[in-house]
């Protein structure tokens, strides 16, 4: 079996994709005619053991607002002798815990 090599991505195309995402994120959201009622709780997502829930994304693309965050991520990953991926997941988890605690207070 041969391994197919992926073609090299065009940096200009990647930048255009990110710029389009930034532009759409800055556009004002349409105003809803009837506001939706507030959700009291988030329903638990359940799946069989070993299965990924169908309504949960497996990936997330992050576009950095500036070079500070990726530089700090690389620095902390080096201090902890972890990969940047593992460090980012750990930071995200801890940040979510802090945000949940703030909303409970």
How does this model look, in words?
This protein is mostly helical and 105 residues long. The chain has helices spanning 11-26, 68-80, 84-104. Helix 2 crosses helix 3 (84-104). The mean pLDDT is 80.
Give a short account of the largest sheet. Answer: none
Helices and strands, in order, run as HHH
Shape: extended
Taking the alpha carbons of the first and last residues, their distance comes to 57 Å
Radius of gyration: 19 Å
The DSSP helix count reads 3
Spans where pLDDT lies below 50 across 5 or more residues: none
The fraction of residues in strands falls at: under 5%
Count of domain modules? 1
Strand elements, count:
0
Overall pLDDT score? 80
- Would you tell me the structural class of the helices and strands? mainly alpha
Biased composition (Low complexity): 24-34
Region (Disordered): 24-48
List the helices and strands and how they pair.
Elements: H1 11-26, H2 68-80, H3 84-104
Features:
48% helix; mainly alpha; 105 residues
What's a concise summary of this model?
The chain has 105 residues and is mainly alpha-helical.
């Amino acid at each position: 079996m041969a391994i197919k090599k992926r073609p090299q991505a065009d940096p200009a195309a990647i930048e255009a994709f990110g710029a389009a995402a930034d532009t759409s994120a800055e556009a004002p959201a349409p105003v809803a005619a009837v506001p939706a009622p507030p959700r009291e709780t988030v329903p638990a997502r359940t799946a069989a053991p070993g299965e990924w829930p169908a309504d949960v994304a497996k990936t997330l693309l992050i576009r950095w607002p500036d070079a500070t965050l990726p530089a700090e991520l690389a620095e902390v990953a080096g201090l902890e002798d972890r990969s940047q991926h593992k460090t980012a997941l750990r930071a995200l988890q801890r940040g979510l815990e802090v945000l949940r605690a703030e909303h409970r207070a």
